[in-house]
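Homework-ish question, so no full write-ups if that breaks the rules, but can someone show me the predicted structure for this set?
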Amino acid sequence: MSQPVIEGRLHPVTPLRRSWAVLAALAVLAFQQRDLISLRGSSFDADAETIYLPLWAVCTAVALIVSGVVGLFVASWWHSHYILDGSELGYRSGLLFKVRRHCELDHVQSVDIVRPFLGRLIGVCTLRVVMSGTTMTLSYLTLNQARTLKTHILAEDTAEESLYQVKTRDLILALLLDLKTNLVSLCMVAGAVLPYVLSGAVLTLSTLIAFGPRIWKLTGKRLFAYSGWSVTRTAEGAYRTDHGMFDTQQYTYRQSRITFIELHQPLLWRRLDWVEVRAAVAGAARPGILIPVCPRSVAEELVLDLLGSEAASHLNRPLPAPPAARKATPFYKALGYRLGDGCFTSWSGYFLRNVTTVCPVHRIQSVSVRQGPWQSKLGLATIHADLSGGGSVPATHRTTSEAADLAGRLYRTSMFEAGSQGRNANTADR
Amino acid sequence: MTSFIKPEPPFTLDGVALTRHPERAVRVNRIAAALTTLGLTALFGTLTALIITLVHLILTKTRDWHELLNWWHPAMASLAVLPVAVYAWRWNRIKVAWHFRGYHLGAEEIYIRTGLLTRSLTVLAYARIQEVNVVSGPIQRRYELATVTISTAAGSDAVTDVDPQTAHSMRERLTELAREGRLPV
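A: Not a homework solution, just the prediction itself:
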C-alpha cells in the first residue's frame, strides 16, 4: 500500500482564529485614546493634557506593531503543518507552545467537514477526524485540501446513498409543535420580563441578557442549525448527517459504535406521527441527533438499517406495565418493554413526550434491579440495562417476579449475543 | 425489636445465599453516618439560625442586640433533639441495611446487592470488567476494611467493606477472570 505523501500548511487565516480579539482590542484602545495624542508637530495652542508626538514616531510605531503582528502571523502559519504519510496523519503547530499530534488511520472512525459561517465566506473549512475517545480538528483548510485529505484517510468508495432529507416546512411546523421546548422558553421569557412588568423599571430588562442566549438556543438556533438536514449512507454501516443554514455541520455515525437509539415523540407530533431520532455513540457525552423530525416509518426503516432486521418486530408491540403500576405513576400507559431477537426496547415518557429506546443486547454491560420504597409496597421493581458509555435503558415498574425473570434473561442473552458477536468478528478477521 | 429485611425474589439468587460483609462494616458505617449527620447539622443549623435571625430582625424591627432571639433559652434545646433523633434512626437502619447487603462471585458473573430505602441487585459479567481497584479510607483502615471498585465500560460498581485479604484476593481473581474471557465493548 504505497499512498502518496500528502502534506501542506493550514490556511493563512488560521492565526486570526484566536487572535482577532486581541487585534480588535488594540484597535479600540487606540481609537479611544485618540484625543490624548495629537499628531501636530509644533506646540502652539499648547494643551497640558495632550501629548505631542511627531508624525514620524507615530508612523514608526504603527509600522512596528503592524509588522510585528503580521510577522507573528506568518511565522505561526509557517509552523502549522500537516502530513498524511502512509497510515499516519500528523499535525504540528505553535511557536511558543508547540503542539504535535499523530493519529493512526486504523483508529479513525469518521472524518467530517465542518464549515463555519465566516469560513464559508472566505472558502475555508474545518476537518474533524473522530477517533474513539478523542477528536482531532484541523482548522482551517481550503475545501480542496480537506476533500483530498478526507478521501485519502477514509480510502472508501464514495458511493453515497441519500436516505432522508428533512423538508423546511416540516421542520418549522415540528419546532412550533414541540410543546415542551416552547413552554420552557416561554417560561424563561416570562421570568425575564416579569420584573419589568412588576416594577416598570427598564433596567430590569437586563435579565434578558442572561436568559437570551438560552432562549435563542431552544428556539431560533434550532431552526437554523437543523435546516437542510440530510442523512446519507456513505459506506457499509456509516451514516452521515449534514445540516445547518449558516454553519454547515457534518457528523458520521458508525453502526459499530452506536449503543442505543431513541425515538422521541412530543405530544403534538402524535397526530402527524412524527418522531425525532437520536443515536448514542459509545464515548460521546450525550445522544446526538440523527434526524430532527421524520415520519415514524422512515425512522423505523433507519432503525432496521442500523440494528438489523430483528429490530422490526420490536418497535410497535410493547409488553404493557402491570396494573399495580397504575398506583406508582399516572403515566403507566406509556411504559413497556420488549426483549428478544438481539434487541432490548423500552417505552417510557410523560405527558409531554414519549420515548422509545432500542439497544442491541450485546452492548449491555451490566443489569441491575432497583426498587424504591413505594415500589416495594406495590411489589414492583425497575430493571436497568447499563450500556457502554454510561447510558442505561430502563424497564420501569414491572412486577417482582417478572423483574427477576427479565434480569436473568437480559443478562444471559447479553452474554450469549456478545459471545456470538465476538466469534463473528474473529471469523471476519481471518 | 429490629425487623430485618428478608430479601425477596428480584433480590435473591436461586439456591445461593450471598456472602455477608464482616460485621465491623456496621460500625464503620455508623461512624461515617455520625460524621455526615454532624456536618449536615452544622450546615443546616447555621443556615436556619441565619434565616431565623434575619426574619426576626425584619419582623420586630429590632436594633438592639439584647432584644435578639435568645438562642440559649432552655426551649431551644429541643432543636438539638432533631439531629439526635435522625442519627438514632440511622443507627438502627444501618444494621438493617447490613443484613440486606451482600455479594456473590458466581461462575461467570458477580452479584452485588446494596441499598435499604432504594434496594438494588446488580449482575455483572467478569468478561466485561475493565478495571479493578482496592480503596480504603481512614475509618475503614482503623477497622481493617477495604472497598473493591469494579469498572466496566458502563461505569463503576463497588463491593464496599470487605476484609483487606478478601479484597486483594478478589482483585487478583477478578483481573484474572476478566483477562480470560475478554468481550468486546
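Now go work out the reasoning yourself. Hint: The CA atoms of residues 109 and 125 of chain B lie 4 Å apart.
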